[in-house]
Amino acid sequence: MKILWITNILFPDLCKELGMKELVTGGWMYSLAKLLICESSVKLAVATVYSGKILMSKEINGISYFLLPLQRDNKRYSKNMEKYWLEVQDEFQPDAVHIHGTEFAHGLAYIRACSPKNVTISIQGLLSVYERYYYTGITNAEIFKNISLRDILKMDTIFQQRVKMRKRGMLEHEYIQSVDYVIGRTSWDMAHVLTINPKVNYLFCNETLRGEFYQHTWSLKSCEKHSVFVSQAAYPIKGLHQVLKALPSVLKKYPDTKLYIGGSDCIPHNLKEKLLQTGYDKYILRLMKKLKIRDKVIYTGILGEKEMCNRYLKSHLFVCPSSIENSPNSVGESQLLGVPCIASYVGGIPDMIESGKTGLLYRFEETEMLSKAICDIFGNDDLAELLSFNEQAVAAGRHSGEVNRNTMIAIYKAIC
């Protein structure tokens, strides 16, 4: 059974082959790929775009790779991609095609060029829904006030980002309306997919997470007490500003609290960084100064797999404060390690967390509830231990590599 994957990223082995720095995103796809190629019945090819000028193919560690030249932004449709997909189709002749995510346009070029027959799409997020929540409670006045030079030159203010997301959402609708099969994992994505295409066959499969997160267990005794970790904070939907608003109330009760944020510091340290500063970064910096909490916030820099895992393990708790999500892998990773998890009650997250048992949920808008949830865990070791034990057990089943591999193979057979 020959399976062609269409992805938005370059896998680590391919990055090494090309002399590129390995990406820190998409680890769940690579984890599943390694499990699939252990099955003698599966021949896997992975196709994606790169900045070169010719179509390339490589065979690395049991996976065939196709690199399609990208001559423009892959967030917009390029008809030029269609001819390359016809070449890939002719060379590999897949029995089934699996497009991972609807966020970028090059997968749609495959459907238009080669037909949607035997094609399935995995839902990661849904841009056509996400754009509704893009401002995440930030007022128009605050957005205007914090527009940066970089935003102006790139025509990429928060206002414009939302418009771009809405346009990409139109392509997403075409993706879902074109195919007969969609793979999802939450009641939230199922509801939206079936609204877009009532005739689609909705197939369920959970995700397999990065390997490092199966090998460790969080311990209350060895973590840094009163430390909070937020793994993503680059743009408004991820909701960092809500955590900042919640922090002063926590500090009144636990003045030694520290907030660790995965990613680059929002404070520019030189002219180049100042020129690259986004409007959202400016807003975050002003908010920290206004709330007088800058000394309580620590940016970790970009973290690789092992570094990210270690940061989770060192933290007293993890917060996913997004305004909208499907089933964030950050929550899955936190639960798999047993790090007490707090998350906003949005999208598919309630499918992952039973509040009070496998984590704590709160309304995104109500930072007071977030403050209380943080203080509840800080002040109650029994609650922290209970959440840790329960969520780790649930996550081990949800993210079982063997179960998810077998489910995916059954899906491919059904499609073929």
Automatic annotation (TrEMBL):
Keyword Secreted: no
Alphabetical UniProt keywords: Transferase
Record domain Glycosyl transferase family: where: 228-385
GO molecular function, one term: glycosyltransferase activity
The protein's name: Glycosyltransferase involved in cell wall bisynthesis
UniProt source species: Bacteroides luti
Organism lineage string: Bacteria, Pseudomonadati, Bacteroidota, Bacteroidia, Bacteroidales
